[in-house]
Every structure is written in structure tokens, then in C-alpha cells.
């Protein structure tokens, strides 16, 4: 929702309310420094104003120094993509070294970073704002029981969402509810217990109390909450429970505006600002530009989290060359003669996609060219992609991010013209997708595999693959890009931009191949469909389950990347340590602050000093 002004009370309340962080910002034991002017907020409009403040944290950048908080983006590109095998940090090695430490999993070898401090801070800011809604509502008058239940559902969903993000990043992440406060003298919240039960309770409350439709696109509804409840159970490997809820979302779910959930006809529609909040958008951070919200040091309501992730130099927008897709990711889009992915582990062998020194000339899944720029391939209406757009080819390869970039003809409409922030053209109105319907289908497919329903898993995977096979949604050369529809014209001299071939799995493929084959197919499909959206690290984490598969995948990736012009060609000592690097370190300054009085409240994750 992000500071939306449709609830008219919020702009006036901004002048009256300072939200005190009475639970968890840097130090849980700090007395609140702000104040709440009770008479102005103990009513429906006041509580709605507080709730909007809780939504505002979804972008991960709603902090006083937003332009410098590169470690907290709501898209999780730093953790989900760069720290896995989807992308490299980008830019030059000396730029944002804190991210280099994370990408090389160097904290367990004594490295340092501020990124995790920023992530921790923003998550507890969101949690605190959700708790403020619940606290103030208890003291408010004139709020009906129906509104109370619905507002509580939204606040508890957001609290559960932020805790879930923290649980996946930090593992041992303290759970803080509205009863934890300075006034109650119970701020010493340890991180010794697993918090999944509390997250589940928050999400289940949201499912049971939220309406099916909402007056604004950015508000969570019953079905979005149910999708995240399914994800919650999936992360806990409770496949039957996850399937129960995800099945309902697939069969009956609708968007906040009441539109039945469905895959968009064309893949690119999910990453095109004029088409946002479509039938595939289950939940998204709402971004907008040129609405009077910007200031000197940030992008206002625009997407600040991905501000660094544009082609560099002569490329679209011109800065800053971060989040470059990896050679490994590009090779994952290779297909066989039947239009299927290479599930046998050979996709990263032999000739390399777009590598002029060892060029792969076989068939490709067309989603590759909506996911990344490639030399010689049309990049929306900016012209042909170019290796000259790469800031440091020695460490970044030859590919650029694409899902967060707008068309040239949309500049000034989908990008900011009003902010004096240094990266105005990099502030966009494209929503941050936090869950797409394709994600729901593939999560449910994962559940179906684990409970033994292989044919149903294949149906869900094929729904996603059939969309990819729709030729109207491919990238074309000798063609004109239509920014309104996110498609290229066909006919005449227009031709597919590369040798595309993608098909559905044939009938009985999953059953005939067995559970291991089906599991690999679902996992691979998640990578192809959701690449560069901040999911990959957390998927590998979930699938690992103590087996060491994550370490094997990422160390194998590094060994090959060391031989290519990539981050690991430069930082060639990177090693992923099993039992340690599946989660990130608790920020040391948080541990120091919480344990300053001699009582051990926060403990570091295993393997970090």
C-alpha cells in the first residue's frame, strides 16, 4: 500500500503522529523516543493511518536514510538472488563491499556487512507498526466489530509476513507481539525458540477475519493471506496442510478487486507497470511516482528497493549495473529437442548461452529474454541488449536485470520526474511482486509431489509452461514493442529473437519418471519462472532440510563460475559451508545491544563468530 492517500485521514495524521519504536529497532531495550497523540488516532481513521504505515515497510526502504539502505529491499534481490546462483552483485568489486561479503558467504570467515543490520531494522520497524495498530485499536472508540476484525487481520498478516521474512533470513529471529513494550517491561525477547507457530497463528487469524475483496488493490485479502499460510506450512514441510490451503487459493481465490486468480496471458505483463495488479498478482508492494511524495533523499512512493538494478552507462537508464544475472542462470534456460529443460544436470556444461567464445546455438526457453538482457536481443523498446551495458565485464558477465526495468517510452510516466534524489530515473511505479499466482501453482505442485499426486503436480507445472509457450508473449526481432500490453508485434519480417522452444511435459511424464524426477522438474520450473525475483536462495534453503543439497548446489556453481568472467572469477575463495550459510548471521550490533547488561538474550547463529 505504501503511503497511499486514499484514506484521507493519513496525510493530516502524518503531521501529528510520530511512531515510537517501543519494541525492536536496533535495541529492544530503548525507551520509545516518539509520541502518539492519542486523541487523534483512537478512531477508525487514525488506526487506518497507522495500518498504512505498516504496509509502507513492504518496500524495505521506508527509513530516514532510504537512499543508503541497500540491504533491506522488499524484493530480497540481495539475499534471494545474489547470495544464490541467480545473479552477481554487479557494479565494480569495490562498490558495496558489504554485499560482496554476503555473496561470498564470508561472514562465517570473519567478514563484516551492514546489510543485515538494515534488514533486521526494517523488519522490526514493520513489526512494530503492525503492533501499534493492535495496541491503539484496543483503546479506540467508534470502530465496529467488523472493522476491528478486519483491521486486526491486516495488522496480524503484516506482522506474520515480516516475521516470516526474518525467520527465513535469520533463522533464530525473536517473535514480538503487541504485548511486548517498554511499558510492560518485557523487552528482553530471546531468540531461542522457533517462531513458526506464532507466524502460523498470525496468518491463520488473517485468513479467518479478512474479507475476500478490499477497497484498495494494495490491501491484503483473505485469499492472499491463505496463499502465505500455505507458504508458511510449506516452509515447515507440512505438505498436507500447505496443499489444503493452496488448493483453495487455486480453486476459489480472487484478487483484492475480486478478479479470479489466473496466469496472465503474457509473462511480461507481471513486470509492466501499466498492467500491475492484474489477475496474477496475489500480493504486491504498491509503488507509484510523480504523486508529490518524493523528497531530497529518497524516491517517495516509488520502488526504491531495486534502485541499483539497471543497466549501466549507455544502457537503459544508465545506472548502476547491479544484480547481473549469472552465466549459470542463462544456461538453465536451455531446452532439449522436446522443448523441456535439461533436468539431468547438464545445462551448465558445454557451450554457453550468449558466450561468443563458446556459443550455444541450441533451443531456449523464451522466458530467458524477459528475465535478462542479452547482447543482440531486443530489450523492450531500448534497442538491442549490449555487453557494453555491463559495468565490469570481468566480474559481472554479460547479462543485465530486466524484470524491474520500464520501457523507454514509459520514462517520465513509470519513472520519477519530481525527486531530487540522485537516481530519479531509477525510481519506478512498477509494483514489487511479493507473490504471483505462478508461485502459488508451483508451491502446490511441490506439495503434490511430496504427497504422491504426481499427475496433479504435472498439471500445475504445465499451466506455467503453456503460458511460456504462447508465441504472442515471446520477444521478437524486427518488431515494435508495445509498452501498453508488454508484447511485440508479429507478422511481416518479425521473427522470434532466438531459437525458442518450450513445451509442456507429455502426459504421464511425472508418474512415469517417478517422484524424484517430478520433484526435480518442479524445482527447476520454479527457477525458470521466478528467477531474479528474490526466491532462489530461500527455495534452496527449504529443499535442503539438513541434507547438504544447498551447499552442493552452490559450491558446484562456484567451481564453474571461477572459470568464467563472473564474481567468483575475482573472488575465487568463496565457499558455502553446510550447516552455517543456509541462514545469515544475527547482526552483531543487535547482540551487543541486547546483551549489554550481562544477560544473554540474543544468541548468534551456529558457525558465526
Termini gap: 39 Å
- Neighbour order of strands in the largest sheet: 1-3
Q: What is the overall shape?
A: globular
Low-pLDDT windows of residues: 1-35
Report the total helices.
21
Q: Helical proportion?
A: 25-40%
Q: What characterizes the major β-sheet? A: 2 strands, antiparallel
Number of strands: 10
Give the strand content: under 5%
Looking at how many chains there are and whether they match, the oligomeric state comes to: single chain
Category by helix and strand content: mainly alpha
Instruction: Please give the radius of gyration in angstroms.
Output: 23 Å
Mean pLDDT metric: 91
Notes on the protein architecture:
The chain has 609 residues and is mostly helical. It is built from 21 helices and 10 strands. The protein has helices spanning 9-14, 38-41, 44-55, 77-82, 97-103, 115-138, 145-170, 196-209, 222-235, 239-252, 327-332, 368-371, 393-396, 437-451, 454-468, 509-513, 515-530, 536-544, 549-561, 567-570, 588-594; strands at residues 87-90, 281-285, 322-325, 372-373, 400-401, 432-436, 476-477, 481-482, 487-488, 495-496. It has a two-stranded antiparallel ribbon. Strands 2-6 form a two-stranded antiparallel sheet. Strands 4-5 form a two-stranded antiparallel ribbon. Strand 8 and strand 9 form a beta hairpin. The longest helix has 26 residues, at 145-170. It is globular and about 65 Å long.
